[in-house]
Design a protein that fits this description.
This protein is α/β, with parallel strands linked by helices and about 400 residues long. Helix content is about 35%, strand content about 15%. It is built from 14 helices and 17 strands.
């Protein structure tokens, strides 16, 4: 795997695909700088070597047309502040004005190109557009894991024009290593904690990881499909009736492969989907009509703790309750605390997938786990066993 550490950028212009698709408020101010901070080490390495950095990214979904609301101009000051260098900006990503700005760029300087998705060729993976982009640098660096699952011009196609001069940035290399640790090289026992609402959204992940894990914790809304499939009564809890056969098949496959599956035994149930609802602890397979399970119960958390603390490699994808409501967040917070303790005891822990990343940030676990993935869809496709086009393009 060729990374940025394998290259000296002295007097080189690095064309870096970053993921600056950051949230903006009504005044176009950046409200979450994580993605910019994540790209900083790669940019600094290029500058410290004596090279210059040309940054390209998308922002939002402008649908192939120029739209001032999605201009990367809005983030220039924030990127400059975080990197510690006044970033230059050019109002396109290809064409004469860009070529001129690139030609004038000196070592130690950073240039941010305008939103790639102002050109329809970006999302279409257009080869001519990719070739135009490729003329902006001597070396191509992909550091955008969040878009590595897209065969877009800037993430995949452009790499063809750098047969010898392409590499992974620090962030993308770290993401690949973290996933490999869980899927291939991690110390056993390996545990996957899968939560969230639906079995249907996790089927391919579950099927792919059953060969790689020793323990599987099923939590969140998925629980009730498994429980009902085994004859339990789940009341008004979320349940995919059409996936019950699949749930039984997953349990059968797990047994055949020697994977221990851990499903909640009790839940915090409520008589309404509301933070103010009346609640009580109920056995998971004995929830009466009018009640729904919204968080893991105390006995369940005791069992989860035991499994988490004896695991050496942990993947966490999905909360175990409706953590957005304070009264049903305790289970997810408890799981975060157990993973924190296991990590301090030497386990490797990877958190990925939108909701679990949101929970980890909300409850302050970011620095307490080994790695938090920045790429939602890309991370999930990796766990499904798919080869991501943006990664394959650098390795080829």
């Amino acid at each position: 795997m060729k990374t940025i550490d394998d290259i000296n950028f002295k007097n080189k212009k690095a064309l870096i695909r970053v993921d600056f698709n950051v949230p903006l408020d009504d005044d176009f101010k950046v409200t979450d700088t994580n993605r910019i901070e994540a790209a900083k080490p790669t940019i600094i390495k290029v500058l410290e070597d004596g090279g210059s950095a040309i940054l390209m990214s998308h922002l939002g979904r402008p649908k192939g047309e120029s739209n001032p609301d999605f201009s990367l101009r809005h983030i220039v000051d924030k990127v400059s502040e975080i990197i510690g260098v006044q970033v230059k900006f050019v109002e396109d990503c290809v064409g004469e004005s860009v070529e001129k700005a690139v030609a004038e760029l000196k070592s130690g300087e950073v240039l941010l190109l305008e939103n790639l998705r102002f050109h329809a060729g970006e999302e279409k993976g257009d080869k001519n557009f990719a070739e135009q982009l490729s003329q902006m640098g001597n070396i191509y660096v992909n550091d955008a894991f969040g878009t590595a699952h897209r065969a877009h011009a800037s993430t995949t196609i452009v790499a063809q024009f750098f047969p010898e001069n392409k590499c992974f940035g620090y962030l993308l290399a770290k993401e690949i290593e973290a996933i490999e640790k869980v899927m291939q090289t991690g110390e056993k026992p390996v545990l996957a904690i899968l939560g969230g609402a639906k079995v249907s959204s996790k089927i391919t992940i579950i099927e792919n990881i059953l060969d790689k894990v020793n323990h599987l914790i099923i939590g969140g809304g998925m629980t009730y499909t498994f429980i009902k499939a085994q004859g339990g009564q789940v009341g008004d809890s979320i349940c995919e009736d059409d996936k019950m056969e699949l749930a039984l098949d997953i349990l059968k496959q797990a047994k055949e492969k020697g994977v221990e599956v851990h499903i909640p035994v009790d839940v915090l149930a409520a008589n309404d989907f509301s933070n103010d609802a009346e609640t009580k602890i109920l056995p998971v397979g004995n929830i009466p009509d009018g009640w729904q399970g919204l968080d893991a119960g105390p006995e369940t958390l005791k069992q989860f703790k035991e499994v988490i603390l004896k695991s050496k490699t942990i993947l966490w994808n999905g909360p175990v309750g409706v953590f957005e409501m304070e009264n049903f967040a305790k289970g997810t917070i408890a799981v975060g605390n157990f993973i924190d303790e296991a990590t301090r005891n030497g386990a490797f822990s990877l958190v990925g997938g939108g909701d679990s990343v949101a929970a980890v940030k909300q409850f302050g676990f970011e620095k307490k786990v080994s790695y938090v993935s920045t790429g939602g869809g890309a991370m999930l496709e990796s766990l499904e066993g798919k080869t991501l086009p943006g990664i394959a393009a650098i390795i080829d």
